[in-house]
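Task 17 of the worksheet. Students: predict the tertiary structure of the chain below and write it out as structure tokens. Keep your answer in the requested format; marks are given for formatting as well as content.
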Amino acid sequence: MMEKQQEQKARRIVLLTHVLGLLMKAIGYFLSGSAVLMNESIHSMIDCINQGLLAIGENRAQRGRSELYQFGEGRATYFFSTVVAMTVFLGGGILAVVEASRDLLDPTHEVEQIQLVAAILFVSLFIEVTAVQDGWQEVKEQNKQKQPLVRFLKESRDSDLLLGFTENLFALGSVTIAIIGISLTALTGNPVFDSLGGILGGLLLIAAAVFLAKEFYSLLIGEGASASDLMAIKQILADPAITQIKDLRTLHLSPEELLIVADLSLKLAPDEEPSTFIDTIEQQIKQALPELRVYCYIESEEITS
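Model answer:
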């Protein structure tokens, strides 16, 4: 309970940071007319909506089981993450590209208050670097198999980590491009670089939307255990008393919940009870996956002594 309260407090602090960032960037955009600041304002707006939708998803996921939802609503987090990826990221990216392209084609487009724009962008850069560093520490803590980053993100069943780290990483790339664009505009006096920076930032948002939509579609449909968790399960089922794994299926009910269904053939000693052996196997699996709430349903139709 205490850990949940800490997570909620941290989320409120992050949301407040994003709201302040949005106000700062939006004011800067209205004063300067900069396409890159418009793009960064969209990024911050996405961050705010993202936090709100994820909070809704988490509240739904905590409802537990009911008569209608026998295994609870844990995958609500996957649904709302998909909504963020498909509507907020994709829509924000398209809006950024369209508006920046309009500025690019507008011969009267100018960027005023370039020093203010640069100052806001460097503050944003510091915020994004800090966010990526925090996310990277969490990735390293969870990536016990030392997998390459892209493979780890694809393997991860943690929607919050996948969405948050990916968004922060792409946002860091976007603000870097924005700084380059506004710097070239300041050096050359040509606002075309500002517009191009806004377009590239929008394309990054669209790329993030495509990547996340693919991953969350897979999670929403129902992914099984990760490769490392599945390996741990199979190692336990390699017990000499298990002569055949007739069927083995796994399903993530939420980032923290895993359903395991297995049909085994056993060869037990005459004095060994099948139910006792299966209970032992289930306990071993749960101990091997301490970070998950595991639901095991194991049966055996053929028992030979």
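Marker's comment: DSSP finds nine helices and three strands in the chain. The first strand starts at residue 242 and ends at 254.
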